[in-house]
Amino acid sequence: MREEIEKALEKIRPSLKRDGGNVDLVDVVDGLVKVRLTGACGGCPMSQMTLKNGIEQLLKKEVPGVVGVESV
To answer: What's the total number of domains in the chain?
Structure first.
């Protein structure tokens, strides 16, 4: 599952990098994906929207078994 998640994150990374940020996969526990937003994304007031409406939606669509995403 971790490999599939990394592959899916590669699809969203170019958008994050254009805004000066990135996302790192930290852990996966029982379908809950733990990520760290870095760079400009780490302190952005819109980061929770990016996390839920962007990253979480993509991962749920692309990787069976993903139940949610949280920032650590």
So the answer is: 1
